[in-house]
Design brief:
The protein is of the alpha/beta class. It has eight helices and ten strands. Helices cover 38% and strands 18% of the residues.
C-alpha cells in the first residue's frame, strides 16, 4: 500500500531487526511500529530509536485500543489497526510534512513489566513487593483466568507463576501464554522438581524452598535480556 502511494519502503520483522538495519546504514524518514511484538515491544523499540536517532519520526500502528501514555509520548502519531487505509496514509503525510524536531532529551527505556501469578494472596503480595523493590512494574493475578486476561490485554515482559493454581496447574496456563507469545519468558515456581516434559514449556523451573529472592530477580532479568536479543528464525 505504501509503495503504491509513492513511498520507498523497508520492512523489519522485529525490533532487533529494525535496529540492526539502521545500524548498518539504512536511511529512513519515518518508522511505523507495532506495540506488541516478540522479544521487544513497541515502546522499548521507540525508546531505543529516539535515543540513537532523535530526529526520527515515529507512528504507532496497533490493534491495542488504549496504548500506554509513555508510549504515546514517544511517537508523533498513532493509528489503530483496522481503520480505513486512507487514515494511515493521511497520518503519514501529515507527520512527514512537519518540520524536523530533534529531541534533545534522551528517552529512558520503559520499565519492565512482570506478571505474577499466585493464588495465595499473601504470597502474591510478597512477590509483588520483591519485584517492585527491584524496579519492575508488577501485574497481579490470583487465578488462571485473570492471568490470561492480563497477559492478553497488557504489555508483559516476563511471567512468574506458581505451579499450583486453584482449579488448574500452571503448566496449562503457560502453554496458552506460549501460544499467544512464544518469546515471553515464563518462570515456574514449585515445591517440587519439574515433571518430564514440563521444563520444555517454561523458560525456567525453580523450587520455592531453594531459590533466594535475589536469584529469582536475577533469573527474570536474564531471561528478559535474552529475549531482547533473540531474532525470529524465518520470515513467513
Amino acid at each position: 500500500m505504501l509503495t503504491s502511494a509513492g513511498y520507498s519502503v523497508q520492512t523489519a520483522i522485529s525490533g532487533v531487526d529494525a535496529l540492526k538495519m539502521l545500524e548498518e546504514g539504512t536511511e529512513v524518514d519515518l518508522v511505523l511500529l507495532d506495540y506488541r511484538m516478540p522479544g521487544m515491544n513497541g515502546d522499548e523499540l521507540a525508546a531505543k530509536l529516539l535515543e540513537r536517532y532523535p530526529h526520527l519520526k515515529l507512528i504507532a500502528v496497533s490493534a491495542v485500543g488504549q496504548l500506554p501514555p509513555a508510549f504515546l509520548q514517544m511517537v508523533d502519531a498513532s493509528v489503530q489497526k483496522g481503520h480505513d487505509p486512507e487514515t494511515l496514509l493521511s497520518t503519514i503525510s501529515t507527520v512527514l510534512a512537519r518540520p524536523p524536531a530533534v529531541r534533545t532529551n534522551v528517552v529512558a527505556a520503559p520499565t519492565k513489566v512482570v506478571l505474577c501469578v499466585e493464588d495465595e494472596k499473601m504470597q502474591l503480595q510478597l512477590r509483588k513487593m520483591l519485584f517492585e523493590s527491584a524496579g519492575f512494574v508488577v501485574l497481579e493475578a490470583q487465578s488462571a483466568a485473570t492471568a490470561l486476561e492480563q497477559f492478553r490485554s497488557q504489555r508483559v515482559d516476563a511471567v512468574v507463576m506458581d505451579y499450583w493454581l486453584s482449579g488448574t496447574n500452571g503448566t496449562a496456563v503457560a502453554e496458552e501464554m506460549k501460544r499467544l507469545s512464544p518469546r515471553t519468558p515464563i518462570v515456574m515456581l514449585s515445591g517440587f522438581s519439574s515433571l518430564p516434559g514440563e521444563t520444555a514449556i517454561v523458560d525456567a523451573w525453580l523450587r520455592k524452598a531453594e531459590v533466594e529472592p535475589e536469584e529469582l530477580i536475577d533469573e527474570v532479568r536474564r531471561l528478559i535480556d535474552r529475549g531482547s536479543d533473540l531474532r525470529p528464525a524465518a520470515i513467513s
